[in-house]
């Protein structure tokens, strides 16, 4: 029974030490600035930059860490939006191919543009 209690206590001590090792500190400001600089312009990016500026001018470590937490929140949201926008751009466009009434569309006899995937060449 004692072995079980000691093992559980050791596990809880290790689990509580892990978040402390991954905590944000004021020394993360340059990395945060580099990350924010790589984001596309938008409302979350602007808010992240504003909080980053506040973190740079913070008068205490606790205030700096609190502002960097907000930077993380808004920068993560901006990065997710950038990722969604990039995935939307990778979908192929739907192009109407030529039919008997519209021979000026891709694949038609009157079409003079580049070949379009999915439309037959004539």
What is the structure about, briefly put?
Helix 2 (29-37) runs antiparallel to helix 3 (43-56), helix 2 (29-37) runs parallel beside helix 4 and helix 3 packs antiparallel against helix 4. The chain has helices at 2-21, 29-37, 43-56, 61-89. The chain is mostly helical.
Question: Which descriptors apply to this entry?
Answer:
122 residues, mainly alpha
Outline the secondary-structure elements.
Blueprint: H1 2-21, H2 29-37, H3 43-56, H4 61-89
Helix pairs in contact: 2-3, 2-4, 3-4
Task: Quickly count the helices.
Answer: 4
Any idea what the shape is?
rod-shaped
* Strand segment tally: 0
Oligomer type: single chain
Average pLDDT figure: 82
Radius of gyration: 27 Å
Structural class: mainly alpha
The N- to C-terminal Cα distance equals: 82 Å
N-to-C series of helices and strands: HHHH
Helical percentage: 55-70%
Uncertain parts: 1-21
Biggest β-sheet strands, sense, barrel: none
Proportion of residues in extended strands: under 5%
Describe this structure in words.
The structure is a single chain. By secondary structure, the chain is mainly α. It has a domain at 26-89. Helix content is 59%, strand content 0%. The protein has helices at 2-21, 29-37, 43-56, 61-89. Helix 2 (29-37) runs antiparallel to helix 3 (43-56), helix 2 packs parallel to helix 4 and helix 3 packs antiparallel against helix 4.
């Amino acid at each position: 029974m004692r072995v079980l209690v000691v093992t559980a206590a050791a596990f809880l001590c290790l689990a509580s030490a892990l978040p402390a090792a991954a905590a944000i500190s004021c020394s993360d400001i340059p990395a945060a600035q580099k990350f924010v600089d790589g984001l596309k312009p938008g409302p979350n990016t602007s808010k992240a930059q504003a909080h980053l500026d506040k973190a740079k001018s913070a008068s205490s470590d606790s205030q700096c860490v609190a502002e960097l937490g907000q930077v993380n929140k808004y920068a993560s949201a901006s990065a997710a939006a950038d990722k969604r926008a990039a995935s939307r751009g990778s979908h192929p466009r739907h192009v109407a191919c030529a039919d008997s009434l519209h021979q000026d569309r891709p694949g038609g006899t009157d079409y003079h543009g580049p070949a379009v995937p999915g439309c037959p060449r004539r």
